[in-house]
Amino acid sequence: MIAILTRQVASLFVTLLVVSLLIFTVMDLLPGDPAAIMLGTSATPETLAALRTQMGLDQPLPVRYLAWLAGVFQGDLGQSYTYGVPVAGLMAERLWVTLPLALMAVTLSIAIAVPLGVQAAYRHNGPFDLLAGAISYVSIAVPAFWVGLLLIILFSTTLGWMPAGGFPGWDAGLLAGFQALLLPAVALALPQAGVLTRVSRAAVLEVMNEDFVRTARAKGLGERGAVWRHALPNALIPVVTMIGLQFTFLIAGAVLVENVFNLPGLGRLAYQSLAQRDIIVMQDVVLFFSALVIVMNFVVDLAYLVLDPRLRVPA
């Protein structure tokens, strides 16, 4: 068990290192000079050269990468060119919007998809199964940002029940904060719930044909009890895998959804830094998103060890 965990942790750090190198290299290859964009076309060559030196852009790529990586390990993510503040503080402030949004979206997705998928498997080939399949296919096909626009039109513009956008801050109270995040969370959760419903249904259906489920039925356990007490617990590995992968899609969707709802989160910060060519902010935000995805995959791998004891045996 310890050897397995050691390999997993080593793989985690190596992956993070490789990803950081790829991010830094790709950002450096983006067209345009950040110093020239900041100063405008009227800047003199001397002023441009001075700003490039101040930003460290006159240094070779390996030197700049190692300096950036050393700062990341020390908790110093650099200074934003656009905002003029430390990137760590800027990201921490935005994280308090994106993280609750992602957690709400994942919770909603699980709460909708797992019961729907299990019931569809329980009533497979029946009317409920067909209806659940149609709902899941529609939710998969509809983009999250378009769902967000429809939710704004219905619940904000037409009914006036929910705010159309913006974030009042957690200082305004938990209720106000959750109200501002509810529609964006629903917009992010619905497409992911469609995918998770199909995975849950398929996984439960496959396990329902196993011998131990048929044995439970033969001993007098009802069909519903066999599904919830025996089939679902043994079908959790593909479900947990999909829940972990959903974080990747939530991060990608957050960039669009946060802009639709005008939320000051990390997704909107990434979009703004890209438009303003604030390379240091872009690097740090993309690295954080990548690290979050890698760590979530690591957590999913650990969950495998808990759910399936066979994986704890060394190869």
TrEMBL record:
| Membrane protein topology class | Multi-pass membrane protein
**Keyword Transport, does the record have it?**
yes
Q: PANTHER family annotated for this entry? A: DIPEPTIDE TRANSPORT SYSTEM PERMEASE PROTEIN DPPB-RELATED (PTHR43163)
Question: Where found, per UniProt?
Answer: Cell membrane
Mention any Pfam family matching this sequence. Answer: BPD_transp_1_N
Q: Which domain of life is it from?
A: Bacteria
Residues spanning the membrane = 12-30, 95-118, 130-155, 167-190, 235-257, 285-307
The name this protein carries in UniProt is Peptide ABC transporter
Does Transport appear among the keywords?
yes
User: Which GO terms of the molecular function aspect are on file?
Assistant: dipeptide transmembrane transporter activity
Q: Which keywords does this chain's UniProt record carry?
A: Cell membrane, Membrane, Transmembrane, Transmembrane helix, Transport
Task: Cite the InterPro entries for this sequence.
Answer: BPD_transp_1_N, MetI-like, MetI-like_sf
Family statement = Belongs to the binding-protein-dependent transport system permease family.
